[in-house]
Amino acid sequence: MSLPWVIGLRYTASKRRNQLVSFISLLSMLGLVMGVALLLIVLSVMNGFDRELRERILGVMPQATVFHRQGITDWRTHAQAFSQHPDVLAAAPFVQLQGLASKAGQVTPVSLYGVDASLEHRVSRLDEFITGKTLRQLSAGDLLLGAGVARQLGANVGDSLTFVAPSREDASAMPAVATFIVAGIIRTRTEVDNGLAVVRLVDAQQVADLGEAVTGIRLKIADLFNSRQVLRDLMANLSYGFYGSDWTRSHGNLFQAVQMSRKLVGLLLFLIIAIAAFNVVSTLVMVVVDKQGQIAILQTLGASRATIMGIFVVQGGLIGLVGTGVGLALGVLGAHYVTDAVAALESALGIHFLASDVYPVSYLPSDFRWSDCLEIGLVALSMSLVATLYPAWRAARVQPADALRYDR
């Protein structure tokens, strides 16, 4: 091993005469550990929110939809035509009604969706979140109810509820009224649960008095961020009366909020890492003062300035390496177990931190990515190494005569 490595390792492991130097060195390392660990955990949580938006919310709600002002009568022809677009993976019809659901005097607004069970699985992941009957098992009069709506109404599987929808044509006309039996509960653990009800396409058509027509056609897009361009392409070939909407209108603000929060929190925690890394500066400056006599002796024995600088770069780099390594290890563990830990804390305290009627997701998700781990590790190590340059330069400029004159 070269001389800077040998002496740098010994300086790092040895006890110092000045206990304050040891204390500040420990604080700088702990600060680096906490900053790295927290940054990795927070980024994993933000990634989790992003994943839940894509897989849960947009897995149930439409990614892109095509409507007609009077309803789409020949929907099969249009669905087949839409599927020819290279970026459209699948298309399925739906009927959407806004109304009120009531049970035993309890009333709450809901969005009633009528879907074709034979086609819906191509455009959504709804069946993955159902407790009870699946879409294909629904019979006439059956209804799948969001968990939030069921909780507000006090409804369980097998209960009967009434759905009331205003007339589409004349607001003064009598509303449509239908009775359904709750056949299953939809639990996505997102805001979707607070206003969703699903029935067979035929049942929804009867309630809406649409005949064979549907409200719109739902599309599954290969690239979510290309949904707006896909709709433009489709609209260019359709007649007057058709219009489209995509997920950026319904949930775009949520996605942007998650991305902005991720960037801001990441920036703040990167600053914490920077502060912790540059605490190495104060630590090494005090080490240089503490070791002036030894530095002077090394210089009189022929050590060059580069060797002296190397000693303190090695020492600071080791502090950064240990702090970053321990921080990454704790961050990886925290990212993998933060969801279970928060759930256990909620259960122990009897408190629900993330209610789905306030937050888009009712639990704390986490999605650990090795790319984040690598990026954080490289940045933390780089900051630590940069922080060693000034103290190392100070050490290399120590004058042996001045240092040994007052050394005892």
From TrEMBL:
Q: Name one GO biological process term.
A: lipoprotein transport
Name its cellular compartments: Cell membrane
The record's principal subcellular location, in a coarse class, is membrane
Q: Which InterPro entries match?
A: ABC3_permease_C (IPR003838), Lipoprotein-release_system (IPR051447), LolCE_TM (IPR011925), MacB_PCD (IPR025857)
Q: Which domain of life is it from?
A: Bacteria
Domain MacB-like periplasmic core: residue ranges: 25-224
Keyword terms of this UniProt record: Cell membrane, Lipoprotein, Membrane, Transmembrane, Transmembrane helix, Transport
Residues passing through the membrane, by range? 20-46, 264-288, 308-330, 376-393
The record gives the membrane topology as: Multi-pass membrane protein
Task: Provide the ABC3 transporter permease C-terminal domain boundaries.
Answer: 267-400
What Gene Ontology cellular component terms go with this record? plasma membrane protein complex
Indicate yes or no for the key word Lipoprotein.
yes
Q: Which family does it belong to?
A: Belongs to the ABC-4 integral membrane protein family. LolC/E subfamily.
PANTHER family recorded for this chain?
Answer: LIPOPROTEIN-RELEASING SYSTEM TRANSMEMBRANE PROTEIN LOLE
Name by which UniProt lists this protein: Lipoprotein releasing system, transmembrane protein, LolC
Q: Which organism is it from?
A: Simiduia agarivorans (strain DSM 21679 / JCM 13881 / BCRC 17597 / SA1)
